[in-house]
Design brief:
This protein has a domain of about 130 residues: Immunoglobulin-like (Sandwich), CATH 2.60.40. The protein has two helices and twelve strands, in the order H-E-H-E-E-E-E-E-E-E-E-E-E-E. The strands form two sheets. The chain has a seven-stranded mixed beta sheet. It has a five-stranded mixed beta sheet with strand order 1-10-7-4-5, covered by helices on one side. The termini are far apart. The structure holds copper (II) ion. The site of copper (II) ion has 7 residues, from loops.
Length: about 180
């Protein structure tokens, strides 16, 4: 019991009991194994998407997203005021996070490859693509680039999975995937 002082005050000078030492060694070795497994999971578990990241000024990122939206907006997303952008296959695509929205909505073509750039205008958000459960950190000042090729058509939601304030739960973006040559 910690409520009373130990009978032997200099307990930290006692030799480690054999059973405790065994557990320390097991925990240490297990930690090393798990450390090595990170490489294995990356290659075989499809858990860590291979992405690139670069430093970028949030203002510059915002300008790139706006330039893309200006060139390739095809409609408004419902009555949200957020544009739906249908970028050319193979191009660089930008989605920015800010309090409390993902902007703009994107429309991809199935089977085409895109370079998706993610960054934040204010503070940290989390990109969580549902229902596929792809999760990426989105930081201000960093351009996270993911090369992706949609394999199925449909409507996918992007939810923020880093708590970012009172509007956090309303921060839902949209990615639409249509058949090649469709949409727009
Ligand atoms: Cu957020």
């Amino acid at each position: 019991m910690a409520i009373t002082p130990p009978a032997e005050r200099l307990w930290w000078k006692e030799p480690i009991a054999r059973g405790e030492l065994v557990w320390i060694v097991i925990a240490f070795l297990w930690g090393l194994i798990m450390f090595g497994m990170m490489v294995w999971w990356h290659l075989n578990g499809q858990q860590n998407p291979s992405n690139e990241s670069y430093r970028i000024d949030p203002l510059v990122f915002g300008e790139r997203a706006e330039a893309m939206a200006e060139a390739y907006t095809v409609r408004e997303d419902g009555d949200s005021g957020i544009p739906v952008v249908h970028p050319p296959p193979g191009s660089d695509v930008y989605m920015l996070a800010r309090l409390w929205e993902w902007w703009p909505s994107l429309e991809f073509e199935k089977g085409q490859t895109y370079r998706l750039h993610l960054s934040s205008m204010d503070w940290q958000h989390g990109f969580s693509l549902q229902p596929n459960n792809i999760n990426l950190q989105v930081h201000p000042g960093y351009d996270m680039v993911v090369t992706l090729t949609p394999t199925e058509t449909g409507t996918f939601s992007v939810v923020c999975n880093e708590f970012c304030g009172v509007g956090h739960h309303t921060m839902v973006g949209k990615i639409y995937v249509v058949d090649a040559g469709q949409g727009g």
